[in-house]
Amino acid sequence: MAAGAAMSAFDVEAIRKQFPILSRQVNGKPLVYFDNAASAQKPDAVIDAMARVMRYSYANVHRGIHTLANEATQAYEGAREAARRLLNAASSEEIIFTKGATQGINIVAAGLGQRIKPGDEIVLSIMEHHSNIVPWNFLRERHGAMLKWVELMPDGSLDMASLEQQLGPKTKMLALTHMSNVLGTAPDVKRAIGLAHAAGADVLLDGCQAVVNLAVDVRALDADFYVFSSHKLYGPTGIGVLYGKSGKLAALPPFEGGGEMIETVTRDKITYNAPPHRFEAGTPPIIEAIGLGAAIEWLEALDRKAIYAHKQALLERATEALRGVNGLTIHGTAPGKGPLLTFSIEGAHPHDIAQILDRQGVAIRAGHHCAQPLMSHLGVSATARASFGLYNTAEEVDAFVEALSKARAMLS
Predict the structure, then answer these.
(1) Architecture (CATH level 2) of domain 2-30+303-411
(2) What is the pTM of this model?
(3) Active site residues
(4) Which of 14, 94, 177, 353 lies at a CB distance of 3.0 to 4.6 Å from 89, suitable for a disulfide?
(5) Of 153, 184, 129, 215, whose CA–CA distance to 315 is shortest?
(6) Residue 9, pLDDT above cutoff 80
């Protein structure tokens, strides 16, 4: 009853009409797209905004005097302001456009590398995406830093006692997911940030999954750095956001050199621009940033709470249908988890499961999900994952469950 009530509060059919790709078929079946945690589909509002600037207002930004340059700059900086609103940052100058969350983490890690000393510690959880592991490993390889790992509880929750144990006087950074892309776990990041700050460490949150599903307020969280990618937020690829407190950004050295990130260049000396432009060398992803701005504005016009309730109802429906299925294990059952369902079937490889589902028009993800330390913790090499977007329906969940039943029969 509760699930049905949640679904009825959100007009999913009206939303679906705004996504052209959802009208197509795959292998003769209506497309059921359950790969949203990897990348979401794009609404007309985003497609039209990007096409419009290419057709009528395209020029390079910031340095032009003419009308097209002014129009493009206004749209580009308007997207920065939209990202500021999304995160409730104090200033648009705290918003840096990047190629994606991965680059954002690399910017912070490289900056920290300028002052890291052998024996300094970076604390991570074992459920981090590789993008929030590998850049910190560079500091271990190149500067002698140590990586320390926070364990999980049996249901996939973050072990807060383990976190407290790993934090110490040598901790320089806590790098933590705001929502796991495998388990859906949404840790108590506010508490984690408080513990890290008490130990004298900065905190970077990977918000790629959380920003799609939760109301993020970086000031209320007191996060030092926050990253997310556009393409999971119904925007285009090739663009993401790094948020940093103004003082933290000002302390970071430039990540790349080129145009825009400088104030003056002479034969003998170069002075660097202030954030955010210090970190946006060269011609930026203008069209993609405008697409991200359009995606945020499109979402702002919707009821985000109703959207999340709708997706959680889909998760509940799928979980109830699969719970108790012989040989099927659901990975991640933490309270408050996000709308994704990761699972294994005894004797069936996840790639085989995904391939059979694809023949029935159902798109899911299979593999290690760029989270190999977590896979090792779970005792598997790979898993299958169905993740739900705002345009998915109860009927699609039923189609997924039926397709999975056929896959189990074929692979048994």
Answers:
(1) Alpha-Beta Complex (3.90)
(2) 0.96
(3) 370
(4) 94
(5) 184
(6) no
